[in-house]
């Protein structure tokens, strides 16, 4: 099987913000990506815009595609999912150090945290856990945004209004002034206002709708392509109005694959997979399997027998040794990783139709170690280029 293990420390999403902040003279930030010095930066993250997808849809994105020849792809990190990737971006650390090791993961012996919504995992679970699972304690490392603010950089965060003060925002994006948006129009306006607000500015902007349409209709579908065209115009408009001495960088948090209907395995209705399993975290393309004491070897054998070549099933320590979560694993992070870690290949999805009914019927999924999910763009344009 071909696995694309993230290249931590050389060209992953965790290296992007430190490299950009190095150009803003923030101390202790390594510029491993070789990005240029500047006085102002806008980092636009387009959720779900994989490198392979962008290359395959150049006609829908002429502006972004025009920047492709000057850059090579970077890797997202593992799992290639939004909560983990945003944590890597905001902290400048691999998952083994920031600790958000998936869409959902163990925060106790009998509890899974949905890291996007900061609820107990399960679509019928709506209890806000911010007072019980305190974001600043779950992810205690100082963010790159906080370090930039300490160095005198005006750090601005432009994102959907409902993300202000969310558990994920507090955990991994703290240190920025939040500017809430509702659509592409005010995202553009807030970005440009933020860039003009101070002499040294770092503005991080986030757009989620391409990922949402990829999940529902599939990446490359008609709705997805129309949304990509709107995003291309958004990026072009920002680039055209950048203040002097400003760099626009466009990246993503993961790619996406279309899951075949006949390649879905439902954990909730498959006794072979459920035997010996205490909790099941992650998502359809990457699963954290938490086993009952003494059952790990038997569970691994059962999963391997049923899934075969369609997935890689590793015990926690082997996944750590293979570098999936980065070169270092903090002590408090280790128990959050499943006793077994399952990385899907091909178009496999391990669904949960009872616990995750909506997610289980998605067309597009992501998270694993395939080229389609791991490779993401990092495209740059400077104001002097316009």
TrEMBL record:
<dbReference type="InterPro" id="IPR002591">
    <property type="entry name" value="Phosphodiest/P_Trfase"/>
</dbReference>
<dbReference type="GO" id="GO:0016787">
    <property type="term" value="F:hydrolase activity"/>
</dbReference>
<dbReference type="InterPro" id="IPR017850">
    <property type="entry name" value="Alkaline_phosphatase_core_sf"/>
</dbReference>
<protein>
    <submittedName>
        <fullName>Phosphodiesterase</fullName>
    </submittedName>
</protein>
<dbReference type="Pfam" id="PF01663">
    <property type="entry name" value="Phosphodiest"/>
</dbReference>
């Amino acid at each position: 099987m071909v696995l694309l293990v993230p290249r931590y420390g050389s060209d992953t999403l965790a290296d992007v913000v430190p490299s950009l902040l190095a150009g803003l003279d923030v101390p202790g930030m390594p510029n491993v990506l070789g990005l240029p010095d500047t006085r102002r930066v806008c980092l636009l993250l387009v959720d779900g815009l994989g490198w392979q997808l962008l290359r395959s849809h150049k006609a829908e994105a002429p502006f972004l595609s025009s920047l492709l020849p000057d850059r090579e792809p970077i890797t997202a990190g593992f799992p290639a999912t939004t909560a983990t990737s945003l944590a890597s971006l905001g902290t400048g650390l691999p998952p083994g150090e920031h600790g958000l090791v998936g869409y959902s993961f163990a925060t106790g012996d009998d509890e899974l945290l949905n890291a996007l919504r900061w609820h107990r995992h399960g679509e019928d679970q709506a209890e806000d856990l911010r007072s019980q699972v305190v974001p600043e304690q779950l992810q205690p490392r100082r963010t790159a945004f906080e370090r930039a603010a300490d160095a005198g950089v005006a750090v601005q965060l432009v994102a959907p209004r409902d993300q202000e003060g969310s558990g994920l925002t507090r955990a991994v994006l703290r240190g920025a002034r939040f500017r809430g948006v509702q659509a592409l129009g005010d995202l553009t306006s807030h970005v440009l206002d933020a860039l003009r607000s101070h002499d040294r500015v770092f503005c991080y902007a986030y757009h989620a709708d391409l990922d949402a349409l990829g999940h529902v209709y599939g990446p490359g579908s008609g709705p997805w392509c129309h949304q990509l065209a709107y995003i291309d115009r958004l990026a072009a408009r920002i680039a055209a109005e950048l203040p002097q001495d400003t760099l626009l960088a466009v990246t993503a948090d993961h790619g996406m694959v279309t899951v075949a209907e006949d390649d879905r395995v439902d954990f909730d209705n498959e006794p072979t997979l459920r035997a010996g399993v205490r909790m099941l975290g992650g998502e359809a393309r990457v699963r954290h399997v938490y086993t009952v004491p003494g059952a790990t070897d038997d569970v691994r054998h059962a999963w391997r027998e049923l899934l075969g070549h369609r997935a890689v099933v590793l015990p926690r320590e082997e996944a750590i040794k293979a570098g999936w979560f980065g070169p270092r694993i903090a002590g408090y992070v280790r128990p959050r990783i499943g006793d077994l870690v399952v990385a899907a290949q091909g178009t496999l999805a391990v669904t949960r139709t009872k616990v995750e009914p909506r997610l289980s019927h998605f067309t597009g999924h992501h998270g694993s170690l395939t080229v389609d999910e791991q490779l993401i763009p990092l495209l740059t344009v400077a104001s002097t280029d316009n």
